[in-house]
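Whiteboard transcription, Tuesday session. T.W. wrote the structure tokens on the left side:
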């Protein structure tokens, strides 16, 4: 609760003409062709002299050149390079109404039933595979006329899960949602070093067509990679796949 909403204006006091009521920014070069401004102390009103108007400059021989002036009425910074030369507008400095070197104390208190900025001490990573992404990806890899689906973003996963999960998580827990990506192991759309060729030797004593064998091999591979058979991060061994297909 603010006790005095005008406290800042009273401290800065923009009506006062005292030069201490102004702060200074100096132009400097960040890199070639790029400039910016930064705070600089106007010690004893020496860097830029704050005057009401140009008529108060007085005897120009009293200054060390170059000398900068800020005229309150016009709001312009001007530069004096020599006693016999006119003042010219300058962008080397900017002057603002304000005060510097103010010491202040901020006291933040809360009611007995409130917390102040409870910090999250436990970071929990949750890896998620949504059913919609899984279905679309399997349809795409099977040749369906759709574009390659993308996994949901962390923000989408947050919108889906967080409303329910936030009700049961601890206040000190921070949950980070990670989408799961599929890695294609075989076929022409896989990486070059993963495009394996499956060679099947048909049993001559069995009466079965080549197309029937191909269909059953693909079915067995799809069953092997069923989601129920895997956990995130499991290692794939080709020998396990080949044994499954043979059986």
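and on the right, the sequence the group agreed on:
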């Amino acid at each position: 609760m603010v006790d005095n909403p005008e406290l800042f204006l009273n401290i800065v006091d923009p009506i006062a003409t005292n030069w201490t009521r102004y702060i200074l920014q100096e132009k400097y070069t960040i890199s070639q062709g790029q400039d910016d401004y930064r705070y600089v102390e106007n010690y004893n009103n020496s860097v830029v002299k704050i005057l009401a108007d140009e008529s108060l400059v007085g005897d120009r021989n009293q200054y060390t050149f170059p000398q900068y002036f800020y005229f309150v009425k016009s709001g312009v910074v001007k530069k004096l390079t020599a006693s016999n030369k006119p003042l010219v507008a300058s962008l080397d400095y900017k002057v603002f109404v304000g005060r510097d070197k103010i010491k202040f104390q901020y006291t933040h208190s809360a009611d007995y039933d409130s917390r102040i900025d409870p910090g999250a001490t436990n970071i929990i990573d949750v890896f998620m595979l949504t059913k919609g992404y899984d279905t679309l990806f399997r349809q795409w890899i099977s040749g369906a006329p759709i574009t390659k689906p993308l996994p949901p973003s962390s923000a989408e996963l947050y919108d889906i899960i967080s409303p329910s999960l936030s009700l049961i998580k601890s206040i000190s827990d921070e949950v980070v949602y990670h989408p799961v990506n599929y890695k294609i192991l075989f076929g022409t759309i896989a990486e070059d070093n993963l495009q394996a060729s499956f060679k099947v030797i048909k049993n001559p004593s069995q009466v079965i067509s080549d197309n029937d064998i191909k269909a059953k091999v693909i079915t067995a591979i799809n069953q092997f990679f069923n989601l129920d058979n895997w956990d995130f991060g499991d290692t794939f061994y080709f020998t396990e796949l080949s044994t499954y297909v043979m059986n």
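Someone added at the bottom: The first helix runs from residue 7 to 12.
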